[in-house]
Design goal:
elongated; 10 helices; 33 strands; 640 residues; alpha/beta; Rossmann fold
Length: 640
């Protein structure tokens, strides 16, 4: 038992007053004469015994009444737990990630959680509340009433580590008891192993169970193109295997272009294709009917007009020389030109996307300087050495002592292909093992810091790449190598050119680093902007020579179609979508978590209240005091 006002116990010293009154009570006796003295002696003896008993009973009841009355004013109580007496600070995390849009008993999990939480919070109770994107510190219900029911779904999802750090920052007093309520569906947490609160944190995990986990989403889309056709392939996913059909619609802005059905056929994924060969639009959208979660039912994408890629080849032959490259780059996609190194204006190098040094015999310092500037501005360089190229010829171009090392005069077959390199992306349907191996009779060893793309039978590189610089180990002249007769020559040089000026992706994922290079001449204080139908933002950007590099990791924050604009001119059409991680619906394994778990908000708050319940005894003390005082009155009235 604990007293709220122990100082009141000093009044117990007042109990000495009734004791003194009873012990030293003075009476005045009067003598009365009777004829029969023996009878009086007997009556006197009986009256004295009754009087003494009555006095002691009155003293005891009066003392007990006073004792309990004093204890009642001292307010005694009994705490239910050791922490019941500590001052408690409450912090509440309300998960508003997209998975909380899954259906509950009557509405979405988030709406149910908001209504139940609001009912459990007291009118004058102070607490801190935070979601994945908003924070309220040390507030009451009245302080946040306007904002609370406007809490909406957010694309971000706090990890448990950040969640605990955020909660700790909300508490104001170190000496108080700290309680954190986590209200979540316990889906898609990345680092559940870090859910280890400190000893001073009382953690309560409230898991909201969805009524159904059925959800379909547009996971991804990519463009498939060749010389004759172009199509859009989209992948749809479901959490569980299903045989349902899902209707997928293709829009140009808001105009419906086509519809098709995605048949899952007892699988978790399905593919759909839309033919775009005869379609000419830039702002596309894929859409499925709304289901468990709505954020993943739409996928925005952009189709930009392909621009010509400028390819330049420099050689040491006469002006009339025509290399094998002319036949590779004869399509409309490329603007190909080749010149002799002896009568070429080096200033034009900055205008091209891909520069090929085709067996140049002599490299002068001016050309080296122009090549370094070309690389610095993001250009792609291809080096085909001459038979007489010395190992240290191109050492100033990359961060290595030299691109080439000691020469070797011996026949070597090219037998190994690095299928993982981006240069061979979508080139081979499978990894081939046997093909007509090209070979070379004289080559230079390429520095090992370069990434091998094609390798000789002994493991040395025939073609390697580093920082957008491609290096061949030997000349490609027929007298040295038969590589130009190999089926590999076309995809190698074709993809080098394509990747030197890559088209913007169909779409980017919000919040992820995405670098886009665009050629633009900006004024001193001029910047590029991303503009949509309802907002305009300035993305992070930096100058790279004649190009501007855009990083869209931090801007924009909303999905949709955007235009990259310079003043009133549109440079590119870009599209952004939310990350689809929330659609994975991976449940948290709570078996090893040493925390209190609850299935509902009322259950958690009732447990919290019970742990801090106090049994107040002052009312019982008052009842006992009144009881003893009544007993004293009865003794005075009826006991003679």
């Amino acid at each position: 038992m604990i007293l709220e006002k122990p100082d009141v116990l000093y009044f117990l010293f007042l109990l000495i007053l009734p004791i003194l009154v009873h012990l030293f009570q003075l009476r005045t006796y009067k003598t009365t004469k009777f004829s029969n003295v023996a009878l009086l002696e007997r009556i006197k003896l009986q009256s004295r015994k009754s009087s003494i008993l009555k006095k002691w009973l009155i003293l005891i009841t009066r003392l007990l009444g006073l004792v309990f009355l004093i204890l009642a004013f001292a307010k005694p109580f009994i705490p239910s737990t050791e922490t019941a007496l500590e001052e408690d600070e409450i912090s509440i995390y309300l998960d508003n990630s997209y998975s909380m849009e899954l259906p509950g008993e009557r509405m979405s999990l988030l709406e149910e959680a908001k209504q139940n939480l609001w009912k459990q919070l007291g009118e004058e109770q102070r607490f801190s509340l935070f979601t994945n994107d908003r924070t309220w510190k040390n507030v009451t219900k009245n302080d946040i009433k306007a904002d609370f029911f406007s809490i909406d779904f957010a694309p971000d999802h706090l990890s448990f580590e950040n969640l605990l750090l955020q909660a700790e920052s909300m508490f104001q007093k170190r000496e108080s008891s700290h309680s954190l309520f986590i209200i979540s569906d316990a889906l898609n947490f990345k680092d559940d192993i870090r859910l280890k609160p400190g000893n001073d944190l009382n953690l309560n995990l409230i898991i909201k169970q969805p009524a159904s986990l059925e959800n379909f989403n547009i996971a991804s889309a990519h463009l498939k193109a060749n010389n004759t056709s172009k199509s859009l392939e989209a992948e749809l996913k479901s959490l569980a295997e299903t045989d349902k059909d899902v209707t997928v619609s293709l829009y140009d802005n808001d105009e419906l272009i086509a519809k098709t059905k995605a048949d899952f056929e007892e699988s978790t994924s399905a593919l759909v294709n839309f033919d775009l060969s005869n379609k000419d639009f830039q702002r596309g959208k894929l859409e499925i009917e709304s289901d468990g979660m709505s954020y993943d039912n739409t996928l925005f994408f952009s189709l930009n007009k392909e621009k010509q890629i400028n390819v330049l080849s420099l050689h040491s032959q006469t002006n009339s020389y025509k290399s094998f490259l002319a036949s590779i780059y004869q399509t409309e996609l490329f603007n190909f030109s080749e010149y002799s190194i002896f009568n070429f204006d080096y200033a034009r190098i900055s205008e091209v996307d891909l520069l090929i040094l085709n067996e140049i015999k002599e490299v002068n310092p001016i050309l080296i300087s122009r090549l370094r500037e070309f690389q610095k501005n993001g250009g792609t360089l291809v080096i085909i050495p001459d038979e007489s190229t010395a190992p240290g010829t191109f050492k100033e171009l990359v961060n290595t002592p030299a691109i080439y090392q000691n020469p070797t005069v011996a026949k070597r077959e090219i037998t190994s292909i690095n299928f993982e390199h981006p240069l061979f992306e979508n080139v081979f349907s499978e990894e081939i093992q046997n093909f007509d191996y090209p070979s070379t009779s004289r080559f230079l060893n390429i520095h090992p810091s370069f990434t091998p793309i094609l390798k000789f039978s002994n493991g040395q590189s025939f073609l390697a790449e580093k920082n957008r610089t491609y290096s061949f180990a030997s000349a490609l002249h027929p007298n040295v190598s038969n590589f130009t007769n190999s089926p590999l020559v076309v995809p190698v040089f074709y993809n080098m050119a394509l990747q030197s000026s890559p088209s913007p992706q169909l779409y980017s994922v919000l919040g992820q680093e995405n670098l886009i290079n665009v050629k633009a001449n900006l004024g001193k204080d001029e910047v590029l902007k991303l503009k949509s139908d309802n907002q305009q933002v300035i993305p992070q950007q930096s100058r790279l020579g004649n190009s501007i590099q855009i990083n869209t990791q931090y801007q924009p924050k909303s999905p949709g179609h955007y235009q990259l604009v310079q003043g009133d001119s549109t440079l590119l059409h870009l599209s952004f979508n939310f990350n689809r991680n929330e659609s994975l619906l991976n449940p948290l394994d709570i078996g090893d978590l040493k925390v209190k778990t609850f299935s509902s908000i009322p259950e958690a708050f009732n447990s919290f209240t019970e742990d801090r319940k106090i049994l107040e005894l002052w009312i019982w003390m008052l009842i006992f005091a009144v009881g003893f005082f009544l007993m004293e009155l009865l003794i005075l009235r009826f006991l003679n």
